[in-house]
Specification:
The chain is an alpha/beta fold. It contains 25 helices and 27 strands.
């Protein structure tokens, strides 16, 4: 996203699902919204009823495709080529929203003289270090002109991703040199034009496999439905994120939306469709290794973060809203450590662990397989079937000393040691596995933060059965036990644990909605946790009304600044609100949307530079000259009394340095970034690279793939070279409505299993005929990592495409099956590989290669090359009862 999303590094939906009904055109790409998010899909359908155009661009024809007026097939991995072609079309046909772009983006900003583009260096940007496989920005050649090299400590690139100074560009001048006439060769607009000049309709068709006419129809629909009177929205999901260029695909969509003037306006924006009920919440109050709550970077041992003063100096952002970070950080420390957090001990900063490497999921499991990780807690996660290269994950967990699995059922990650497809003798596995039954959603209190940043409270309907407990109970009880175990310790390293505020028990009997008292007397009070997250004044514990009230002097405490306002006064939990507002773009009294119950981010951009709505039809937020404040149908995402004509005085800092016509307040220059001088570790502009495994060469550059990805070249993670003749078929994974992720929440449900009872693979009639595969018969898909067998679904939903002058076949594999549950099937993720993009350590499960044939695994020739060990030989027969599974697979 152009503002907070890019600044945060993880992305955040700029708009609301309900607002999709106000779109004149919806481009769905990298998402099967109708099947993966069927409840939210009603809003694009409402837009269609009102005359909007729905477009689906995807390798796989789905129920989403069937409900759109336009469907365009492309091959997996061609997204940036397609989006880059759209950007070129907008620019070369002069269809960009000139007033919006010149005022609200960095199109006119001049870039440093040393900048060299991928067009100059055959797919690389300036500053690339081939030994480190990363960009060395010491030369500062991606920066705005006039910006010197910041004096920042350098560390391994893996730990710099969440550094403010790396993400936001340490601008000394919030008003960098600009050329409003766009004649300077190094202004962003001209760099952008040159970068995408070769992304012609012919190149798009040749690279993506669609026709030029199909591409041009999409381009014209987007342009015709953007501007003052009309807006287009873009919807994406893991079909974009799960690539080695996933962040750059989203950046490409951002550039397109900024050029068309669709950010911060009703019916516009970019909607990131999350795959879980609260996955947005798990990045806001993070389960991520490199972030603290509210997207504050985790201190790092290998940067100059020794003291809190050092941390603030290193991560200082002088201009824009992130300049308030010290207020958020100190309030967080006060929430965690209470009275023990004092000025003289830097508010307990010394107790926060320091990063010394990349501890995201995939690198951690690679280390685990190497025997470098001793224990693991799994909360609602199933890497034995749901993670890329699941075979490596199963092998890694076999080397643990202990494993704790908290889930509803005995999932694959709890039974891999005796029921896995490798047929391992349980006696050879040293891991002690603890299965801790978890409470289901109706059995616990708390909030979910859904895909549109909306916090919604849910009450416990019933107590969980028997020994099942909520995750909150488990962590609260574990914390109490650890504090008791370490009580009396005088070691400095133990003081953070002992100082933690840990007073979340109920003050009165815990009563269920039906009036009965809960039998679980030691369940913590989830609302107390939410109060701490909201924040309060330390002296009297009165809730703060918003994050604007937070201070850097230790007088306020706040567990997550972006959630501040969800509990603004005693007894008022805004996440409980359920009031609809007919006739309004969104419902402001339904739940609580961060930040500050703002439904649309950057909505200052819905008005022109003078503060007037771009049009009456798309009126949203505007400047009220009589009242001298911003008003509208949403909470203005701007200082409420900053006039449009405000200009910063010389030497201004913080928000005072953001002018009244600069909507993107999370950026130090207040502009939407067409060109990213910081924040993206693989280039300032999105560039087409092939997936790490691809049956074709890069048609644009000699550089075949993203040069900054980490490939983890270990024995259990072999990968195919580009154009490997052994594996000519492209593959992608997809999701069904009837099952959920790798199946733990659905394959133990008989009703859902009746609806989708068996693992299958979709392939085209042409590929099936070529390989002798019959519809409904058995087929095998295999590559360098594994082989799986499944029933063949021969269908026109997957079609051969003409790419680079030849026919390219694709297959589509649902990823919901495994070896646990009421129905079992092959693990699709045994075929995918472990690699990570440089920005957020994301894998590439949506694009890989394989081969296919008729039959079953036992029929496959065993002399086919595979390193380092044979494929799993476990044959899954969905028609056989569990007791009939091969010997050694049961206990």
């Amino acid at each position: 996203m152009p503002g907070l999303g890019t600044a945060l590094g993880r992305g955040a939906a700029t708009t609301f699902q309900e607002d999709l009904q106000n779109s004149d055109c919806v481009l769905i790409m990298g998402s099967n919204m109708a099947e993966a998010h069927p409840v939210g899909f009603r809003f694009p359908m409402k837009a269609r009823e009102r005359g909007a155009q729905l477009i689906h661009v995807d390798p796989h024809f789905t129920r989403t495709s069937a409900m759109c007026q336009t469907y365009v097939p492309i091959r997996a991995g061609g997204d940036i080529a397609f989006l880059g072609g759209l950007i070129r079309y907008v620019l070369t046909n002069d269809r960009w929203f000139r007033e919006y772009v010149l005022a609200y983006t960095n199109a006119s900003t001049i870039i440093n003289e040393g900048y060299r583009d991928a067009e100059d260096l055959d797919g690389l940007f300036c500053g690339y270090d081939p030994e480190k496989k990363s960009y060395d920005k010491k030369g500062n050649s991606w920066q705005y002109e006039g910006e010197g090299q910041p004096h920042r400590s350098e560390g391994p690139e893996a730990v710099q991703a969440q550094s403010y100074s790396k993400r936001l560009a340490s601008l000394e001048n919030p008003e960098p040199p600009r050329d409003p006439e766009l004649k300077h060769p190094r202004c962003v607009m001209n760099i952008l034009r040159r970068h995408y000049e070769r992304y012609t309709p012919e190149m798009v068709a040749e690279t993506c496999g669609c026709t030029g006419e199909e591409f041009l129809r999409v381009a014209e629909l987007l342009c015709a439905n953007s501007g003052r009177e009309r807006t287009t929205s873009i919807v994406y999901a893991v079909g974009w994120t799960q690539h080695s260029v996933g962040v750059q695909i989203i950046r490409c969509a951002t550039i397109l939306q900024l050029l068309l003037g669709n950010i911060g306006r009703p019916g516009g924006g970019i909607m990131a469709m999350r795959g879980h009920a609260s996955i947005q919440g798990s990045t806001d109050v993070p389960t991520l290794y490199d972030l603290l709550p509210g997207y504050i970077p985790q201190p790092a041992a290998i940067r100059d973060h020794n003291t809190l003063a050092d941390f603030f100096k290193q991560e200082e952002v002088k201009h824009g809203y992130w300049s308030n970070m010290p207020k958020f950080m100190i309030s967080l420390l006060k929430a965690w450590y209470g009275d023990a957090a004092k000025a003289e001990n830097e508010w307990g900063y010394c107790w926060i662990p320091r990063l010394d490497g990349n501890y995201s999921h995939l690198p951690t499991f690679v280390r685990m397989e190497e025997g470098k990780v001793k224990g693991l807690f799994l909360f609602g996660q199933n890497p034995a079937a749901g993670a890329p290269n699941a075979r490596l994950h199963r092998a890694a967990m076999k080397k643990l000393d202990w494993l704790v699995v908290r889930d509803w059922f005995e999932i694959e990650s709890a039974c891999y040691w005796y029921k896995g497809p490798e047929g391992t003798d349980p006696k050879t596995i040293p891991t002690e596995v603890f299965f801790m039954p978890a409470a289901a959603l109706p059995e616990k209190d708390g909030t979910l933060t859904n895909t549109q940043r909306l916090l919604q409270w849910h009450d416990r309907a019933v107590d969980p059965p028997e020994d099942c407990r909520s995750d909150l109970w488990f962590l609260y009880d574990l914390g109490k036990r650890l504090k008791k175990l370490y009580a009396g310790s005088e070691r400095q390293r133990d003081q953070g644990l002992l100082s933690l505020t840990w007073d979340y028990g109920y003050d009165k009997p815990n009563v269920l909605p039906d009036g009965r008292v809960s039998r679980i007397s030691d369940e913590p009070d989830a609302e107390k946790v939410l109060k701490e997250i909201n924040g309060y004044t330390v002296a009297d514990r009165i809730p703060v009304k918003a994050f604007a009230e937070l201070k850097a002097d230790g007088s306020t405490a706040c567990g997550c600044w972006i959630y501040s306002g969800v509990y603004p006064k005693e007894g008022y939990n805004r996440s409980r609100e359920r009031k609809r507002t007919p006739g309004v773009y969104t419902s402001p009294n339904w739940g609580f949307a961060w930040p500050h119950n703002r439904r649309m981010m950057y909505n200052r951009a819905s008005a022109d530079p003078e503060g007037r709505p771009w049009s009456e039809r798309k009126k949203y937020v505007w400047w009220d000259e009589a009242q001298k404040k911003w008003t509208g149908v949403d909470v203005p995402d701007f200082e409420p009394d900053k006039a449009p004509l405000y200009r910063p005085p010389e030497g201004a800092k913080g928000m005072a340095s953001i002018s009244g016509d600069s909507p993107f307040i999370m950026k130090p220059d207040g502009k939407g970034w067409l060109f990213a001088p910081a924040g993206a570790k693989d280039g300032p502009l999105p560039t087409h690279y092939e997936p790490i495994e691809s049956p074709v060469t890069n048609p644009l550059y000699r550089q075949q793939q993203n040069p900054t990805i980490q490939t983890f070249d270990v024995a259990l993670n072999p990968k195919s070279a580009p154009l490997d003749p052994e594996y000519p078929v492209a593959a992608t994974t997809f999701r069904l409505t009837e099952h959920y992720l790798s199946g733990p929440m659905s394959r133990f449900n008989s009703w859902l299993n009746e609806l989708q009872p068996e693992m299958f693979i979709e392939l085209s009639p042409e590929l099936a005929e070529e390989r002798g595969i019959e519809h409904g018969g058995w087929m095998v898909a295999w590559n360098a990592r594994a082989a799986i067998e499944a029933r063949a679904m021969v269908t026109r939903r997957v079609r051969p495409l003409t790419v680079d002058g030849r026919v390219m076949h694709q297959i589509a594999i649902p990823f919901h099956w495994g070896f646990a549950g009421e129905t079992v099937g092959a693990v699709a993720n045994d075929l995918t590989s472990v690699l990570t993009d440089p920005n957020v350590s994301m894998h590439e499960a949506k694009a890989f290669v394989c081969n296919v044939r008729a039959g079953r695994i036992a029929d496959l020739r065993r002399d086919a090359p595979l390193s380092p060990a044979p494929w799993p030989t476990y044959r899954v027969d969905p028609e056989a009862p569990v007791s009939a599974q091969p010997e050694g697979q049961q206990k």
